[in-house]
């Protein structure tokens, strides 16, 4: 069955980050106030535009883009097609990088995504914050792509495609085998080996177009019945403070555990504690 909004429009949701943008290799290229940022802010915008164009060519009537990096005020409107709506800024709600998502969307696409905290496949690997050493869910490493794919699944919205570094592309395929991925970077230490940015745009556009034309049931992701979230903080003071959240258990001075049967409750805990 096709998923459409109340107006009968077929809608796609895009969550856009920057640390998996083609060629990016340093934190200064991700920070709006730094001189290195401008070129990569534009590149982020162009990759999102390519995903939007692919979605429209693939049959979507409307694309909702969530600017999900830093200030959430990165994307250049002038790069985006007119059928795009944009969410900027932070509403301070538990959906975070997926704000504005609901059951009316046909699917979700992640652009500019990066590998998770503790990984060596991107110099900018992290999960949510550089103050976190690692997160696991039910004993498995957890990154932003995993968190946001589960959030989409909570609303029965499948992850159709993802672009970013080779590490997160492999993990997205492991999570959702049908997911179309575009690896634009491969990292080693502080080195990044990238495809040409113009090639990245072509690949992203085509991957999203193809994904939007496939049966959305092929991308189904089932949520676990229960959730056990373990979080390792780099600073014991932050772990101490977060340990007062209701239901959180202290495993040691730097590590906390939270268990729930509802993914939204896990999101709520992360919103207030991370």
General description of the model:
The termini are far apart. Strand 8 (180-188) and strand 9 form a beta hairpin. 28% of the residues lie in helices and 24% in strands. Helix 1 (37-57) packs parallel to helix 4 (197-212). Strands 3-2-1-4-7-8-9 form a 7-stranded mixed beta sheet, with helices on both faces. The protein is globular and about 50 Å long. The protein contains 6 helices and 12 strands. The protein folds into 2 domains: 11-123 and 143-219, Rossmann fold, CATH 3.40.50; 227-273, Dipeptide transport protein (Gyrase A, domain 2, 2-Layer Sandwich), CATH 3.30.1360.130. It is α/β, with parallel strands linked by helices.
Quick tags:
274 residues, alpha/beta, Rossmann fold, Gyrase A, domain 2, 2 domains, five-stranded antiparallel sheet, 6 helices, 12 strands, 28% helix, globular
The average pLDDT value, as a whole number, equals: 96
Q: If helices are DSSP runs of H or I spanning 4 or more residues, what is the number of helices?
A: 6
Strand adjacency order, main sheet: 3-2-1-4-7-8-9
- Total domain units: 2
Shape: globular
Reported by name, the CATH topology of the largest domain is Rossmann fold
According to CATH, the homologous superfamily of the largest domain is Dipeptide transport protein
Distance between the termini: 37 Å
- The helix/strand order is EHEEEEEHEHEEHEHEEH
Structural class: alpha/beta
Unreliable stretches covering 5 or more consecutive residues: none
- Output the radius of gyration: 18 Å
Give the C-level CATH assignment of the largest domain.
Answer: Alpha Beta
Largest sheet: 7 strands, mixed
Portion in beta strands:
15-25%
User: What is the CATH architecture descriptor of the largest domain?
Assistant: 3-Layer(aba) Sandwich
């Amino acid at each position: 069955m096709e998923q459409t909004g109340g107006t009968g429009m077929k809608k796609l949701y895009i969550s856009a980050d920057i640390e998996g943008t083609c060629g990016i290799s340093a934190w200064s290229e991700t920070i709006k106030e730094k001189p290195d940022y401008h070129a990569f802010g534009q590149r982020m915008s162009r990759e999102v535009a390519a995903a939007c164009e692919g979605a429209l060519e693939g049959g979507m009537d409307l694309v909702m883009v969530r600017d999900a990096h830093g200030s959430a005020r990165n994307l250049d409107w002038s790069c985006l097609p007119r059928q795009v709506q944009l969410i900027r800024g932070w509403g301070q709600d538990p959906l975070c990088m997926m704000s504005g998502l609901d059951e009316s969307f046909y699917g979700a696409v992640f652009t500019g995504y990066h590998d998770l905290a503790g990984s060596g496949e991107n110099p900018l690997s992290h999960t949510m914050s550089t103050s976190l050493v690692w997160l696991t869910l039910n004993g498995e490493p957890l990154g932003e792509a995993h968190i946001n794919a589960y959030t989409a699944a909570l609303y029965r919205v499948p992850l159709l495609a993802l672009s970013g570094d080779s590490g997160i592309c492999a993990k997205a395929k492991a999570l959702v085998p049908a997911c179309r991925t575009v690896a634009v970077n491969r990292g080693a230490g502080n080195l990044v080996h990238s495809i040409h940015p113009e090639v990245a745009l072509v690949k992203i556009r085509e991957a999203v177009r193809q994904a939007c034309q496939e049966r959305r049931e092929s991308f189904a992701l089932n949520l676990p019945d229960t959730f056990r979230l373990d979080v390792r903080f780099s600073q014991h003071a932050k772990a101490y403070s977060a340990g007062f959240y209701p239901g959180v258990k202290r495993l040691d001075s730097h590590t906390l555990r939270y268990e729930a049967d509802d993914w939204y409750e896990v999101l709520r805990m992360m919103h207030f504690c991370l």
